[in-house]
Structures are given as C-alpha cells and as structure tokens.
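Sat 14:20. Reprocessing the chain from the morning session after the first attempt stalled halfway. Input below, unchanged.
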Amino acid sequence: MIGREAEVKIMNRLLNSNQSEMLAMIGRRRIGKTYLINQTYQHHKVFDFTGTQYAEKDTQLEKFSTKLSAYYTTSPQLKTPKTWFEAFEMLKTYLKSKNRTSKKRVVFLDELPWIDTHRSGFLAELSYWWNDWAVHQNIVLVLCGSAASWMIKKIVNHKGGLHNRVTQLISLQPFTLAETKSFLLSQRIKMTEYQILQLYMVTGGVPYYLNYVLPTETAEQTINRLCFTKTGMLNNEFKNLYAALFDNPENHITVIRKLAEKRSGLTRSQLSTLTDISPGGGLTKVLEELEASSFIAAIQPLHKKKKDTLYRLADEYSHFYLKYIENQKLGAKDIWHKLAHSQSYKSWCGYAFENICIKHTDAIQAALGIQGVYTETSSYLHKKSNEYAGFQIDMLIDRADNAINICEIKYYADDIYVTESMATTLRKRRETFRSLTNTKKQLLNTIITTYGVNENEYSKDQIDQVITAKDLFELKSF
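Finished this time. Tokens:
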C-alpha cells in the first residue's frame, strides 16, 4: 500500500487500545477509503457490509442477512430480518459465536448514507446496538461513507444516541505529489516529476484515476486517452461524481461551475448573486458539503473578516473537465496534443499549479526551513486606488518569527529568466504591500516555480528565496 502512513498508524492504535473504538472515515468518491480499511484491518475484520445506492430498506436488509450468512461457515441462509433491530440482534448473535480472544475485532459498515434510507430506523438501531452491547465487546466499529457532509452531520455530530461516540475521525485526502510518484513507480510507471505534475493537474492525485495510467504512455498520451476518447473513464466521470455524493446536486454543480470561471475565488455574497442560491441555509449547506468533500477550499484574505473568505475550486479534475473536456467532440485524433501546446493551456496551467502549491503549503514551509515556526497562510488582493495600482499576491506566509513570505507562483516549462521589468514589479509590490499593511515584519520575495530561476543581477536584487516543484514532491501526506 502506497502512502497513508499517518492513517495506518492511527488505525493500528485503535486496535491496541483497551476499549471499544468507533472510527468514522470520510472522503470523496474514488479516494480509496474502502481499500485502506480492508488492507489495514484484513486480519481483524469479522464482518463487513456495504450499502446499496437507491435500494429500499427491505433490499438492504436482505443483502445484510445474505452477507452475514456468508460469514458463518456451516449455517444455511439466514432469514431476512424485518427491521434493523432484528438485523443488529443477528449480528450480535454471530459475534457472540466467535471465539473470544484478546485481539480486537473489526466490524466494517460501508456507505452508511445509502443504508440509512428514509424512515428505515437504521441510525437509531445502530446507536442502540453500540450503546447497549458493542461498546463493551472490545470491538472497532468502522463507519464509512463518501458523502462527507452526511457523515459529519449524522455520525460525527449526531444529536442522538451516537452523540460523542466517534472516538476517531479520519478525513482521507487525495495523494500528494510524492505519494502519486510512489504509486506510479509501484506500477512500473517511470514518468519525470514534470510529467507527474501535468498528470496531477488532471487527476488531482485520486488513486482510482491513477490506476488507469499505463507504463508505455507519456502524461500527454494518458490524458488524451482518459479524457478525450469515447472509452476514456474520465470523459463522463463529472456527470456521476456529484450525483453519487449529494442528493439533488444541481446547486453543488452550479457553484463548481461559477468557481471554475474565477481563478482568484469568490466570496459567499458573490456566489449567492451569481448562482441565485439564497445566502442563508441553502448556500451555506452547499459550501459546507463541497468543502467537507475537498472539492472547494476556503481561503482567508489577509486582515479580512470572515464574510470576505474566498472560495476556490480545489478539485483538479472538475476544473479540467469544465475547461477542456465538457465541450470537446470525442474521438478526434490526438486532440489533446493540439490543446496541450496552446496558449490557453499554458495560461490554465498557472492556475492549476497555484492550486497545487496551496495544497502543498507544508512542503513549501519545509523547503523554506520554517516547518517549526507558527504560520498563517492567506492571499492578498488590492483593488486599484488613486495612490496605488491594483495587484494580487498568490500566497502570503505570515510567520511568527517576524517575517512574511510574499509568494509569486509561476508555472514554466523551463527556468525563469528575471527581466528588469519583472524585478521592478516585485520591488514595487513589496513596497506597496508594506505601505498598505503598515507591517514592520521582514518581507521576503519568494518565487515558487516549476524548475527554478536563472541567476542574474535582477534575480539577486529582488528574489530572496526560490521554491521548485521538486520541493513539492517532498510532502509525504496532507
């Protein structure tokens, strides 16, 4: 298994505790939750059951009894229970029949949002089974679901019998660049880091997507096959992605589309205006669900109030789909080869690389040598005024050691050559930022780029630190 070291360590700790544990694992579709649980707990799992999407209670109960029957080595097919109370009583009987050992037993219930159908009583009976019996039985109960917002509301923050019962929450994230590289190497795929970066801009480090990469192809060939051929698994993924996670996903998709159009991000107020979704409960619910599922990220501008929070589209695949796949005619020969060398794509890469850098902030801080320093990361936007021209700062790292890194993020296919004009822009921006914020901290112009910076008199004068894509590959996990 590639990566996931921190999560495996937590899961093993639960096995070695002296009490029953309830683990809730959340994460978007295709992220590898079920695989991680099955791999880590394969020698401890005594029962597992996965809900069926759109199935009614009777069908869920029938499949539950069929699965439980399979765990008995000699018993015939069990009778289908009529209620979830009967189902959990059957599970209790089965677990009692297992030989008692000091080893923790794992019960795994997957896709809970699909099991908990309307008026099924599932959550109430799960609560009763846990509180009345299972909590005393040296068990790890693993609850999992792709609908992160449902899991948080119904399990983690449950107001009833499951209130404060979750002893561990794991939010599984996509692979980092480092984990993506390790995964590809494990599949005998030896791409350069630059090619992996290109691939990451499309897949976002989602393990399931990476399974479709072939050792014989370049990143460009892979993207063309997966996204622009009739059999490519990513050309229709967008249509299924949100529908599988959210009930009535129309508003979620509308928000995603608007964010894809604005690379600097949009405030809650701006989103409400552009989408016609009420700024109260409707939009709040959509934003919370999208953020919980890692599709969007909330960025706090420097010295701004909560209402000024900017929401950015953080899911690489969604942004790539809306920009390049959605309106393309599939099957045209080598269509991506043409698009990948267009000026439009080069410009788009700048935004995609910026998003990747924001996700890999820990790696940037490590490269700067400040991983032990308290920091706050934000953005900065100054609209044109009578005194100063308008400008935007991609990333600010405000440090407790009395310094601020003013980060300029640039995606280039080669080293950056700093011209006199660029040096002047960097100098003026630093001076203007100091005047506007009245900060007394040391201001460090920091370039984050693909390969590096050609050293000359202008770069020496205005660039204090350089971070490259290679540094981003040092982050083992989010």
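The chain has a mean pLDDT of 93.
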